[in-house]
Amino acid sequence: MIIAIDGPAASGKGTLGKRLSEHFGFAHLDTGLLYRAVARVMLDRGSLLTDREAAALVAQNLDVTHLDDPRLRGAEMGEAASMISAYQPVRDALLAFQRQFGSQEPGAVLDGRDIGTVVCPQAEVKLFITATPEERARRRHLELLKRGEQAAYETILDDIRRRDERDMSRSTAPLKAAEDAMTLDTTHLDADAAFRAALELVETQRA
Ligand SMILES: Nc1ncnc2c1ncn2[C@@H]1O[C@H](COP(=O)(O)OP(=O)(O)O)[C@@H](O)[C@H]1O
Ligand SMILES: Nc1ccn([C@@H]2O[C@H](COP(=O)(O)OP(=O)(O)O)[C@@H](O)[C@H]2O)c(=O)n1
What positions does the entry give for ATP binding (predicted)? Predict the structure, then answer.
């Protein structure tokens, strides 16, 4: 079984994905980390993020065994990932790995932007997680402060708005809810309440 979770930045996709995967005993992949990992290699090499060919080559040769590097979770990597993820050859290069991951038994949870629409359109369960930009910026602000990153709330809110706009307006695999996805607005739900609500939606879709 596949649980596909999509939604905008800092809506809580990863947190829900992890908890749902633990609950069902499924594997979990935060697909944003793949794009962040491509961005990390580009930045470390000093490549321009506008260099599509270089980004495609990096994606084709990506080492997916180091996705737990805490550096990937930083704000700089999120912004850079959003730029290189708009290139079709980059997305094509990362598709097979994601689909392979989704084929695991007894099941897999994948979270990202295009899981229900492009990566796993056949997923039995599709959730689209949202929250207001202000609430998402508040969450990301707290997260970055805990990581020890300097970050102003207003800057994060601007970053989130810009990234959402870029992710929604790109021509390839734009961020949008699949037609058969169920939307969960977590603006007024803490992580526990969001998990309970998501679990109910999963049970509804599986039935
Ligand atoms: N429902 C929630 N209420 C408050 N904070 C949350 C909630 N869900 C997640 N968080 C926190 O918000 C931040 C972003 O969550 P994350 O799961 O990484 O989002 P995404 O994967 O959508 O970017 C994390 O610090 C996480 O602990
Ligand atoms: N399936 C995915 C996942 C991420 N991405 C891109 O990668 C960037 C970083 O994704 P992420 O999920 O790690 O970002 P956050 O939601 O955690 O801020 C996003 O802004 C998207 O541009 C994508 O295009 N498709």
Answer: 7-15
